[in-house]
Amino acid sequence: MGNNLGNNNANIAPQPHIFPQQIQQPQIDHTKCLSVAKKNSIIQCNRHKKNGSDYCGVHGNAKVIVKITDIIPNQNQVQPYNINNNAHNNAHNNAHNNAHGNNIVMMSPNLTYQIQKVENNVINNINNLPNYKLLDDDDDSPMTDINDNKKVMPESLYYEKYDFMGRNALSLSKIKISKLKSTITNLGITNIVNIAKSDKSNIVKELRNYYAKMEQFALKISIKQFTRFQAHARGFLVQRRKRCVNNEDFCTLDSKYEIPSLYYFSYNDIDKFAYCFDIRSIVQLIKHEQINPYNRNNIPPIVIAKMHKRIDQLRWRGIIIEYDKPVLTPEQEFRNKMLLVFHKFDALDNYTNFEWFAKLDIKKLKDLYTIAEDIWAYRAALPMQKKMQIRMHGIAFHTDKYLIKTISENNKRYLQNILLNEFDKFVSDGVTRDDRKLGAMLMLTALVEVSPEAAAALPQFVQINLA
């Protein structure tokens, strides 16, 4: 029987000695720093994680980090050790515990083997670590290499808010005065804290007050208040454009509300009205004349200086202030053509509105052509020499008026273009400015006869037929 017992003992795998401190397997708290607290330990660091990292502020800056999850593996992934005789193993553990006088709970063979695996894993990880000094809980000095005693990882140049407030605030003895002064300078509050005349305790007190006030200020500004502030700011920007008397940019014909903020420019003229422009349109305007296209007043020199300053700022930032060649619809091209022709009328000391012409129906357009041709050929009674000074070769309205009468409503745009071309030549072909002014007067005299709005605005050109 003794031999059989001896043979059974030979087949049992040798078990390690289990001590009380080996029974309790460390538990990992994933809400805390996932580094070990010290080099030769499997105790987890008790500091809180910082800024979404897996580590606290101390271990997060360390060059070598021993992760607690690497030392203590998941038990579900450990292959259990098969014990042939569980009864004998329990008897062996009981004998050992009684011999040492330790009253401990009985352990299963699987847990015994797993604890031994943890011990071996800890030893292997420690042996493979480089010869670096890890930061202890009570040590805030930078990491150094023991072999050459050279600084490897410099500490932060400034303190952070959590170093002074909260459960992890540093004690006064651990705060360095040089680093404290650098923090004051970095925050830009040297006017609040007198570094030269204050000691460390007063500087720390002032910093804590500063951070506390910042927290109170942040709590006072709610999202609702911030949204209300944005609404007021946007409302002011819209109201600033609304007070401008012109509804669109004179060059692009874009609505004043659609002008990009980067290019928006406005000023108050001497007539006490506000006008707004696209700054890129101003660039094109001042190349030819420095006149407000809406009221024909000279743009004040101080406004011209502001325009140039704004243009220089945009160019210095590398922003292109010239227009790309626009792609206009036929309707936009025709509107632009009317605007340019009537702008020439205004440049000759007249006040016009292209809408007078745009509102004419097909019948009034035909009458306009007939009246303008009659004034040029007969009613003005101009000699041929004077006609040649107003129009090149003294020839105008070469389209037969009987052909004009056959134009249908569907070809209204064709007749409008004929009239605009004639108007443009009358205000452009003159040899002198007075010749161009006379040409403009002749065409406006014809326009007031078919447009009541033009007659009301330009009564000086209205002719009364006494017959």
List strands and helices in order, with pairings.
Blueprint: H1 2-11, H2 20-23, H3 57-60, H4 68-71, H5 86-100, H6 109-127, H7 177-187, H8 200-220, H9 223-242, E1 264-268, E2 274-278, H10 279-286, H11 301-316, H12 330-347, H13 354-358, H14 362-379, H15 384-390, H16 401-404, H17 412-426, H18 433-447, H19 452-457
Antiparallel strand pairs: 1-2
Helix pairs in contact: 7-8, 12-17, 14-17, 14-18
What does this entry look like structurally?
With 467 residues, the protein is mostly helical. The protein folds into four domains: 2-127, no CATH class; 161-220; 246-316; 330-461, no CATH class. It has 19 helices and two strands. A two-stranded antiparallel sheet has the order 1-2. α7 runs parallel beside α8. The chain is elongated and about 115 Å long. The N and C termini lie far apart (156 Å).
Summarize the structure.
This protein is mainly alpha-helical and 467 residues long. The chain has helices at 2-11, 20-23, 57-60, 68-71, 86-100, 109-127, 177-187, 200-220, 223-242, 279-286, 301-316, 330-347, 354-358, 362-379, 384-390, 401-404, 412-426, 433-447, 452-457; strands spanning 264-268, 274-278. The chain folds into 4 domains: 2-127, no CATH class; 161-220; 246-316; 330-461, no CATH class.
The coarse overall form would be: elongated
Residue share in helices? 40-55%
- Please report the number of helical segments: 19
Task: Give the domain tally.
Answer: 4
Strand percentage = under 5%
Q: What's the total number of strands?
A: 2
Largest sheet: 2 strands, antiparallel
Strand order of the largest sheet: 1-2
Rg of Cα set: 47 Å
Structural class call reads mainly alpha
Overall residue-averaged pLDDT value = 74
Low-confidence stretches: 1-23, 75-114, 129-154
State the order of secondary-structure elements, H for helix, E for strand.
HHHHHHHHHEEHHHHHHHHHH
Alpha carbon gap, first and last residue: 156 Å
